[in-house]
Amino acid sequence: MSSAITGWEHPDPLRADDGLNCHHDGQGGKKARQAGSSSSSQPTYSVLDVPPWYLCILLGIQHFLTALGGLVAVPLILAKDLCLQHDPLTQSYLISTIFFVSGLCTLLQVFLGVRLPILQGGTFAFVAPSLAMLSLPAWKCPEWTFNASLVNTSSPEFTEEWQKRIRELQGAIMVASCVQMLVGFSGLIGFLMRFIGPLTIAPTISLVALPLFDSAGSNAGVHWGIAAVTIFLIVLFSQYLKNVAVPVPVCGGKKCHTSKFYLFQVFPVLLALCLSWLLCFVLTVTNALPTAPTAYGHLARTDTKGNVLSQAPWFRFPYPGQWGLPTISLAGVFGIIAGVISSMVESVGDYYACARLVGAPPPPRHAVNRGIGIEGLGCLLAGAWGTGNGTTSYSENVGALGITRVGSRMVMVAAGCLLLAMGVFGKIGAAFATIPTPVIGGMFLVMFGVITAVGISNLQYVDMNSSRNLFIFGFSIYCGLAIPSWVNNNAEKLQTGILQLDQVIQVLLTTGMFVGGFLGFFLDNTIPVHLHSRNKAWKDPPFDGGARMVLVEDCSLPQRELRERPCDGTLDGPGREGSLEERGLLVWNQMQEDSEETAKALEVYRLPCGIGTKVCTSSCTQYLPFWPRLGAGSRERGRNLLARLFQDPSGARGKGASETKL
């Protein structure tokens, strides 16, 4: 998972009413409209279009820059626990490697995966279990590695110290990625999504970032003034100036003119990072920052890592096993699997959001299965190459699709090729490894805050006036913070006498996203819901095999609302726990449902080179969960599932209607 600092809205590229809006009229009837129905909201280039080559390159560079913050952040977070805080050259190698693998995985996803223009990159979902594993007594860094004067980065002893840790991460990621491939290619992801709702996702994603407050605070605390400037600039560009257009000269043919470009909305993190970096350089040149290594603010100087650029090679080709043969421990595998589950659920949501923004039909089941399976393959490659992390779909790049209104696959191919090139060009990774520590800390404070908010935003599907839902979310979040803190301070009290079991327990219980996500999952699927409703207003015609539905007035909400309920007064029918509507699963599950296969869906999501449609069309392949279905395009009956569920034939909005953004 990555943070989405880039804004999602501005006047033209992405309208405020983009998306599917549900309306409740005065009589309680639901109305909806699809914003894509107007021509103004259609993408300039759809997923199947091929823009001019120069536009592909420019927009590919934009996608690279949009993902830059998340790509660089992951290796920098892991550096301290890998004993690399005083070895910026090796940090630059890790940055170059994650660039290279992200480009490779992006190309695999576009050509063989879900086939939507989604960029792949490092995931924060793997950071928490990785740090938990590296905090085990066997993997804690020796004290001498924290003292820069005692570290000789070229010595075999130091090299072995950090390489054995990253090899342990590699092995755990590679084994956990096999689980993700199994879930994807076997079609299990659809089954799992029936039980995983917003009350599971919200604490899981929020607890990806919340435990990292210590890392962000420590980096920012090196010089709070520089960190505050970085935070101020990011907030200024991404929130206050996001709708300010900058005139850009454009020359076409024989005439030149100016065009408006929303610079601050597209590149807020990059601009803030560069300006803060420049400020540190000026303060270094003028000696305004202390020169003594032990003085407060010394690490804000740009010359503390200045030799990295001269030491880094111009070209360095990352390769599998570059740090040695991976090792495997049971504790690390179980911890990374918790991150895999969180990453998979987020990616499914990204697929549906991306399809809507690029004008494609919702991805059918085989495309989602294939996308998750290819992401598992990407994690396997990331482990083999030694990034210290996995790969996942980048949400902020999905947002960039809405801003640019260019959803062509070829643009993402250009971005993937650019990432490959940046991974081979060694000086690029070295340049990012020299970012002053307080600048990184300021960036972390904003990014981790946004990730936390993204997790909480999943509660928009849930009735938060329900005491049941408030309890589940609050209890899960609090335990996800309290239990890992206690286990870290009292690890000796959980000794079972079996070393491997002790390590598994410690890694899982010190991973906040696992604790909170598991509690949210268990409680949401077991705690029943009581019906707070009265006055059955009227009955609808028989629905779903004769089970009549009624509209009831829900008095548990501050503003009374009419809702559909079974007329027998039960919530979801006999034998089912909880209210799907109250738990947020009614809308949530509908969003995960398969789209009907139309001719366009078959064209968008089929495999390249006619695989599955012209070649390899054996009847046996039709039983593969990730294989395109033959003959589906002739039915012409599929439409956007959400639009079909709530579509109003007139398309009109009820007078005084209240609106809920999905």
From TrEMBL:
Cellular compartment(s): Membrane
Bilayer disposition of the protein: Multi-pass membrane protein
Single GO MF descriptor: transmembrane transporter activity
Biased composition (Basic and acidic residues): 19-28
Regions crossing the membrane: 52-79, 91-112, 172-201, 221-241, 262-285, 323-341, 411-433, 439-458, 470-487, 507-527
Top-rank taxon, per record: Eukaryota
Keywords: Membrane, Transmembrane, Transmembrane helix, Transport
GO cellular component, one term: plasma membrane
PROSITE patterns in the record: XANTH_URACIL_PERMASE
Biased composition (Polar residues): 35-44
Keyword RNA-binding: no
UniProt cross-references to InterPro entries, sorted A to Z: NCS2, Xan_ur_permease
Annotated spans, Disordered: 19-44
Family of this protein: Belongs to the nucleobase:cation symporter-2 (NCS2) (TC 2.A.40) family.
UniProt-recorded name of the protein: Solute carrier family 23 member 1 isoform X2
The species this protein was found in: Mustela putorius furo
Annotated gene: LOC101693604
